[in-house]
Known about the structure:
The protein is of the alpha+beta class and 608 residues long. Helix content is 56%, strand content 15%. The chain has 19 helices and 13 strands. It has helices spanning 2-6, 9-20, 29-60, 65-74, 77-87, 90-111, 125-131, 136-158, 167-216, 237-240, 245-248, 262-274, 326-376, 385-416, 428-445, 465-481, 513-516, 540-550, 594-607, and strands at residues 220-224, 230-233, 278-288, 294-305, 318-324, 424-426, 449-454, 461-463, 488-496, 499-506, 554-560, 564-572, 586-590. Strand 3 and strand 4 (294-305) form a beta hairpin. The longest helix is centred in the middle third of the chain and has 51 residues, at 326-376. It is elongated. Residues 528-532 and 580-608 have low confidence and may be disordered.
Amino acid sequence: MTVLRKLDLFPAFRRFIDGLVHASASGDPIELHRHRSFIAVNLVGGLLALAALPIHLVVVGPTGLAEAGSLLWLAAPAPIALAVSQTGRLQLGHLLLAVSIGALIAWVALFTGGTKSLALIWLAVLPVEAALSGSRRVVEGVLMIGLAAVGCVSLAGSMGLLPTPTEPANERLLFALSAAGIAYMGLLAFRLDALSRISSEVARNREAHFRLMAENIGDMVTGHGPNGDVIFVSAAIERVMGMSPGEAHGDGLFRRVHVADRPAYLTAILDAATVGGAGTVEFRARATAPDGKPRHVWLEMRCRQLSEDDPLAREARVFAVMRDVTERKTQEEELLRAREQAEMASASKTRFLANVSHELRTPLNAIIGFSELLRTGTVGTLPDARQREYVQLIHDSGSHLLQVVNDILDMSKIESGAFDICPEPFDLPQLLENTRHMMAHQANERGLRINASIAPGLPEVTADRRACRQILINLLSNAIKFTNPGGSVTLGARPEGDRVAIFVRDTGIGISERDIARLGTPFMQADSGYDRKHEGTGLGLSVVKGLAALHGGTVEIESRLGEGTCVTVRIPVVAEAGHLAKSSPVRIVPLTAPERAAEAQESRQRRA
């Protein structure tokens, strides 16, 4: 042995044997040792037995059938070891080895006295060898094989089939078997000792790793019985709960759980223990602060059922990990309170705007009405041109202010849910034409024209006619307002499945991609700076968005700065009454594809 160590042969032999171990056994150190030990002993033993046959012939001379058969049989473990190396089926290898050795012992017993042969004693080695497999079923199978070997020898003796013994052969067979048996028992003892040491080392390492992990992670690790009692708990409970693991054992942790949360706590553990799977529950618990004062913490518990094969499963049936989520719960509560306060403030603002708008409309109608009478000369022509100009300014300002008030009132109704949708069937092309003619005068004053692009075959639409007209007026007003003289505005519609797409396209100033995301927010315009050139409150598109959402529709904006804008409203062909969608997302889509945009930019640069 010392010579082998000096020649550094043990590491080389170990590497050779490790190379023969099947890949399936490399993950578990204990399983790896079992495979390595089985392959090394049986491969080397089988090859030595095979090499001993010619030596025996040289030393002893021609031998009989019993001795030759025994020597060949001793070589059988070698191919079994190679089979285990190729397949990784160690338990099957132990069974085949038991068959081989049992048959060898029975063979020798047949030539050395049958049931009276001392060779049968070595059958006791078989269960000990089988114990190295780590499988109780293999041990039971090997016991049956040993009994079968004894039965075969006994049957042969009772039937008078035992060969006539020859004294020298008997002595050599018994001597060889005894020598091999003693050597085998010695190796077996070494293997059992090595397996025991490795198992103990692996267990210690695993325990140390588990303790290191459990003591350094912030989460508590607990094991529970089927009634919820704590069987084991990690040391993290001292940091989280301010209590020792001993205090938490049994129902110690349960008594710290808030009374109102105890049913949920026990239900989660019971479900994990009986139904299986994993469950999560959040509950409050009473903890002890570092200064000794009591405090409440929020814990999130994730638990799962322990299988019978789990090394943690003894009395415990449920494995749980508990995390302190007090900070997150506090933030959620603060966020909820802030949201409630914001909703209350928004409701107050909406009520205020609705009341103010309602009070403003009455005097505004009087101002607009009387200024209209003065402007048209119904009550007499004003003699001075400056007076007529002032009356016109009063009328225009009053009309503008009334439009603002109406938009505010509509927006308030939509936000408060007081805007009632009254669906009715109507002819959409006719509504489009009427609206186009109504807005034509305003467009002409700006030096624009409104084109129509109405696809044929538009179905009859069931929606709120008044709301749809308001949508068209707002979109056309925006298009006219933001399009320079000489440009064009197009009003159109087309069917899209069970929806109708109504669009207004202009060749106006366009909207930058950064501003598109903000559109639809009340009082927000793309140009909201102090030096903006176009008047408006930013409510028109918000009202459109709200009215479309009340119909279950959507609003889509396509625009490019300096090229124009296209706003498309899609509403169902048949809108249901009482559709209460509060908001509808605005999908931002570039007016032109990126490639086309790049080409246009390049073209502009070339022209410059």
